[in-house]
Model the fold of this input.
Amino acid sequence: MASSPPPLPAAAPPPPTVLRLRGGELHVIGWPEALRPPFGLRREGGGLLGRACLAGTVLRALAAAGCPHENRVHPPPLAAEDVPPPPRPAPAGFDAWVANGHHGLLAGLADGVRLDCVLAAVGHTRARLLAVARDSAAAQQWRAALAARGFA
Done:
């Protein structure tokens, strides 16, 4: 009786694609050969280089293709104790922002609702953020509103 050949060992998973910032540019190391790089990236050295704003596009392309990756561009998430408690109920427009992949613009909101949206977004994503105010008076309003909620 002939014996069957031993099973082939499972192929090792590919190493993850790594995203970094280098000299203000996005540096992508280990791009999968079978995947076409997004427009705006150029081959240089052992990787791909492009504008830093392409990081989101690169991450979405890798995720859609199911490719493992390490994002070293963005800072690590906030610690749980640094995350503000989410406002209840969720502010107007927040659920639509989440459903749209955290993209979009909420305009024409009252000051309190605007602050609730920002705090809800930080609580949901645990990400740091940059709030841009139209002038120094608006910046002072933001600081006062955050201080009133216990954030210095």
